[in-house]
C-alpha cells in the first residue's frame, strides 16, 4: 500500500504566546496550567502518522483531546502552527488558496456530525451540491449523485426532503453527498455521534459495507472506543493534543502503550470486539482431491493430532477428517471424499468472539474460519475463545496451571489439521 496522507510534527496552539506555551508542554505542564500561565491553548502537539491508501484510520479520544482540531488541519479548515500535512506528495499546510480550493473540491471531502443538509433541497439536490459548486453540468452531476445514492441505498428517496427522513438516513445522505464528488480522502468528524445507538450501529455497518465497494481513504474521528474498534483498520488514541498510541484494535487491547491507554481500554468487552480472524490459528489441511488416507495419517502422526480440515486445491472447505475415518478409508480402499464429515462447523473471519462461544462450547472439533468465498483461512479452538474473553494477564497466569494448559494444547491439536 502507498501512503495517501502523511502528517509530520503537526502542532496547533490557539493564542498569541505560542512559543512559551510549547515550552511549557515540553516541561510536562497540563493544558490547564498552560492556559493559566500563558492564555494560550495547545490543541495539538507534535503529531506524526501515516494513513495508507484505502485504510480506515480512526482518531479517537475524549473531549478536549485535540482530535477534531487535528482532522480540521488535514484540509486546513484550521491552519497549523507548525508541521506538514501531505496528501500524496503535496503539503496542504503550505498551499496557496487556489491550490487548497482544488484539493477540497477534488481530493478531500468532509462529513460532519450535524449532517449539514439544505432543508429546501431534495435528497438528490443535496447530493448534487458539491458537484454543482464545481460547475459540473446538470446531467452529469445528477448521474453521479444518483450513483452515490444507489451505493448508499437511498436512490428511492431521491425526491424527498431531509425533514422526511430519519436521522440515520439524513447522515447517509451527507455521506452520499461527500462520495458523489469521488474524493480520494474522506474526513468524518464524529459523523455518527448524534445518532441513537441502534441507528449508529446501522451506520457503522453501512460504512463498512460501502468501504468494501468504494475503497476510499477514510480518517474517522470518534470519542467512542467501541466504534473505533469496530470500524478502524488502525486507531490513534489521543490525550491532551498528543498521540498516546497507534495500532490495530488488537494491538491496543492486548499491548497498551502506557497506563492511560490501559485504563482507557480496560472496560472493553473483548468478546464483542475481537473476531475469529483475531484469534484464529493456522489451519493444517489435507487436500481431499489429491491426497489419500496414508498421506493424511502420516501428517497426523507428524503433527500429533487426530483431526484435519479437508479442502480442495483452491482451499475451499470440504469437511473434516478424523484419524478413525482415515484408517477406515485405508482399510476399505475408499477415497478421502467418501469418509469426510461434511458437517464441520465454520464461521466467517469477521464473526465476533461472543458469537463463536456458544458454537464451540460443546463442539469436539475446532471451527473452520472461512473467507467470503468459503476458503479456509484458519481454525478457532476453544482455548483461544476462552482466552479472548478473559484478561490477558490473567490468561497468562492460568496457562501456568498444568491441567488448564494441557486442555488448551489438546484442543489445539484437535483443531489443527495435519
From TrEMBL:
CBS domain ranges (all copies): 340-396
Keyword Cytoplasm carried by entry: no
Coiled-coil segments on the chain, per record: none
Membrane topology (UniProt): Peripheral membrane protein
EC number: 7.6.2.9
This protein's UniProt keywords: Amino-acid transport, ATP-binding, CBS domain, Cell inner membrane, Cell membrane, Membrane, Nucleotide-binding, Transport
Pfam families reported in the protein's UniProt record: ABC_tran, CBS
EC class (word): translocase
Reaction(s) this enzyme catalyzes, per UniProt: a quaternary ammonium(out) + ATP + H2O = a quaternary ammonium(in) + ADP + phosphate + H(+)
InterPro entries xref list: AAA+_ATPase (IPR003593), ABC_osmolyte_uptake_ATP-bind (IPR051921), ABC_transporter-like_ATP-bd (IPR003439), ABC_transporter-like_CS (IPR017871), CBS_dom (IPR000644), CBS_dom_sf (IPR046342), Gly-betaine_transp_ATP-bd (IPR005892), P-loop_NTPase (IPR027417)
Superkingdom of origin: Bacteria
Annotated region (Disordered), positions in chain: 389-418
Compositionally biased intervals (Basic and acidic residues): 391-410
UniProt domain ABC transporter: residue ranges: 5-265
Compartments, record wording: Cell inner membrane
Predominant localisation class: membrane
Family under the similarity heading: Belongs to the ABC transporter superfamily.
Subunit text: The complex is probably composed of two ATP-binding proteins, two transmembrane proteins and a solute-binding protein.
Protein's UniProt name: Quaternary amine transport ATP-binding protein
Species per Swiss-Prot/TrEMBL record: Tetragenococcus solitarius
Lineage: Bacteria, Bacillati, Bacillota, Bacilli, Lactobacillales
Amino acid at each position: 500500500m502507498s501512503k495517501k496522507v502523511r502528517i509530520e510534527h503537526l502542532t496547533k496552539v490557539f493564542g498569541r504566546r505560542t512559543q512559551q506555551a510549547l515550552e511549557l508542554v515540553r516541561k510536562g505542564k497540563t493544558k490547564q496550567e498552560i492556559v493559566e500561565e500563558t492564555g494560550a491553548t495547545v490543541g495539538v502537539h507534535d503529531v506524526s502518522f501515516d494513513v495508507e491508501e484505502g485504510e480506515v484510520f480512526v482518531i479517537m479520544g475524549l473531549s478536549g483531546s485535540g482530535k477534531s482540531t487535528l482532522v480540521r488541519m488535514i484540509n486546513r479548515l484550521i491552519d497549523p502552527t507548525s508541521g506538514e500535512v501531505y496528501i500524496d506528495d503535496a503539503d496542504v499546510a503550505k498551499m496557496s488558496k487556489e491550490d487548497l480550493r482544488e484539493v477540497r473540491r477534488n481530493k478531500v471531502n468532509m462529513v460532519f456530525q450535524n449532517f449539514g443538509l439544505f432543508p429546501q433541497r431534495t435528497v438528490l439536490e443535496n447530493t448534487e451540491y458539491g458537484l454543482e459548486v464545481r460547475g459540473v453540468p446538470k446531467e452529469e452531476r445528477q448521474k453521479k449523485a444518483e450513483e452515490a445514492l444507489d451505493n448508499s441505498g437511498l436512490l428511492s428517496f431521491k425526491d424527498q426532503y431531509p425533514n422526511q427522513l430519519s436521522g440515520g438516513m439524513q447522515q447517509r445522505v451527507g455521506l452520499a453527498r461527500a462520495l458523489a464528488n469521488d474524493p480520494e480522502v474522506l474526513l468524518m468528524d464524529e459523523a455518527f455521534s448524534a445518532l441513537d445507538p441502534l441507528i449508529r450501529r446501522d451506520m457503522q455497518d453501512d460504512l463498512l459495507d460501502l468501504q468494501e465497494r468504494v475503497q476510499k481513504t477514510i480518517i474517522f474521528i470518534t470519542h467512542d472506543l467501541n466504534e473505533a474498534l469496530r470500524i478502524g483498520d488502525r486507531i490513534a488514541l489521543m490525550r491532551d493534543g498528543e498521540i498516546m498510541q497507534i495500532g490495530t484494535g488488537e494491538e491496543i487491547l492486548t499491548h497498551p502503550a502506557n497506563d492511560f491507554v490501559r485504563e482507557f481500554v480496560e472496560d472493553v468487552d473483548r468478546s464483542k470486539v475481537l473476531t475469529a480472524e483475531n484469534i484464529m490459528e493456522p489451519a493444517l489441511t489435507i487436500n481431499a482431491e489429491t491426497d489419500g488416507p496414508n498421506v493424511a495419517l502420516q501428517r497426523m502422526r507428524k503433527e500429533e493430532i487426530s483431526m484435519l480440515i479437508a479442502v480442495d486445491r483452491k482451499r475451499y472447505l470440504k469437511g473434516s477428517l478424523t484419524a478413525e475415518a482415515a484408517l477406515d478409508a485405508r482399510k476399505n480402499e475408499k477415497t478421502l471424499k467418501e469418509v469426510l464429515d461434511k458437517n464441520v462447523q465454520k464461521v466467517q473471519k469477521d464473526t465476533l468472539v461472543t458469537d463463536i462461544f456458544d458454537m464451540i462450547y460443546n463442539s469436539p472439533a475446532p471451527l473452520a474460519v472461512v473467507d467470503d468465498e468459503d476458503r479456509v483461512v484458519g481454525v478457532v479452538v476453544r482455548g483461544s475463545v476462552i482466552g479472548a474473553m478473559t484478561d490477558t494477564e490473567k490468561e497468562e497466569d492460568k496457562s501456568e496451571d498444568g491441567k488448564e494448559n494441557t486442555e488448551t494444547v489438546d484442543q489445539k491439536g484437535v483443531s489443527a489439521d495435519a
